[in-house]
Design a protein that fits this description.
This protein is mainly alpha-helical. It is built from 3 helices and 2 strands. It is globular. It starts with 22 loop residues before the first helix and ends in a 17-residue tail after the last helix. 11% of the residues are buried.
Amino acid sequence: MADLPEVGINPGKPTRKRVGVDPITLRVLGGAFDAIAQEMAGVLFRMSYSSIIRESEDLGAGLFDAEGRELCESESTPMHIGSLPWYIRGFLHRVDKNELKEGDIIIHNHP
């Protein structure tokens, strides 16, 4: 796994730029993103051929930006919480980001 980018926190460097968004707009957008992630997970539950996924809801679904930063995640299996960003960053490390277009979907199915 040495070829994967290092992911961690640098306490001396700000992690995000400050953006002027009022708290109400931020909460509305956050709620919309959460609803999208929950709906994505629901669609996968209903479409799955696997009884493990259908019955135990053993999957994770989330929205990420172009840099692999997580915007939201479904509330399905707790073991998926926190692992999705690693999947996405590993994927982005192996593909040409210029090939990804708005609306592209990444589906990952590897333990």
